[in-house]
Amino acid sequence: MRLALVPLRIRPRDPEANAQRLSAAVRQLTTREQPDLIVFPETALTGYLYRAEDLARFAEPVPGPETARVAALAQAFGVNVALGLIEATPKGPANTVVLMDRQGRVQLRQRKLSEPPPYVRGRELARADLEGVRLAVLTCGDLFSDEPLALLPQGLDLVLVPMARAFDGRSPDPERWLREERAAYQDAVRNVGVTAAIVNALEEPGGGETPSFGGALVVGPHGELLAESPHGWDLPLVFELEPEAGKAG
């Protein structure tokens, strides 16, 4: 499976602008790289939000208008798409990742398990079989949390890890990334024992929060760095996954 990880440049609280950037990325990647699966970050349409008024304003049901737009995009360009959004549920907002197939059908809807209130937490980890690749989703902090890892299905080839992760203080921070943070991600994936495709949002400053620092990487089941795009940038990372090599031996 050919993966394209897109550290989407996100304008907080502007879903229309972000949806247009997402659409442009799908169009460009399917033309140039012909990926099988394009993965966008956590809360890709709005940026990561936590204020009650923002969640009430931007959360929407799944399926809903934005997922319908992405479904039409997946169908038009014949590509599988995964992205994060803020889902409106009867119990409150959820930090959700949706995986759609080439026909625009939802194959997986995963709510983040390690998310604090006011978000509603997910209760289980689902597995999707996508064109011969067995995959699951660990959203951002789920990768580093014991409870989600204990629920991870067996026999996976790939874990998708969409993020909206920022440093305290300066963010992006290339020196900190190289000095300590990248190794922490590699250690976390080694603990999972499955190849992980990690993609982080690149938020524009000015949203009121410290911006997410962008970049993407693929880490093998033994914690080995297989591919990486630059920290602090929105350059897509394209990687050819061999399913048999996805699990630790």
Mean pLDDT: 95
How many β strands by DSSP? 14
Radius of gyration: 16 Å
- Stretches where pLDDT is under 50 for at least 5 consecutive residues are none
Order of helices and strands: EEHEHHEEEEEHEHEEEEE
Helix coverage percent: 10-25%
> What is the CATH architecture assignment?
4-Layer Sandwich
Percentage of β-strand residues = 25-35%
Q: Main β-sheet: number of strands, strand sense, barrel status?
A: 6 strands, mixed
Quickly name the level 1 CATH class.
Alpha Beta
The N- and C-terminal alpha carbons lie at a distance of: 20 Å
Notes on the protein architecture:
With 249 residues, this protein is α/β, with parallel strands linked by helices. It has one domain (2-241): 4-Layer Sandwich (Nitrilase/N-carbamoyl-D-aminoacid amidohydrolase). It contains 5 helices and 14 strands. The chain has a 6-stranded mixed beta sheet with strand order 6-5-4-3-1-14. The chain has a 6-stranded mixed beta sheet with strand order 7-8-9-10-12-13, covered by helices on one side. Helix 1 runs parallel beside helix 3 (65-77).
Give the SSE map.
Blueprint: E1 2-5, E2 9-10, H1 15-32, E3 37-39, H2 52-58, H3 65-77, E4 80-89, E5 92-100, E6 106-111, E7 128-130, E8 133-137, H4 146-150, E9 158-163, H5 174-192, E10 196-200, E11 202-203, E12 216-219, E13 225-228, E14 237-240
Parallel strand pairs: 1-3, 2-11, 3-4, 8-9, 9-10
Antiparallel strand pairs: 1-14, 4-5, 5-6, 7-8, 10-12, 12-13
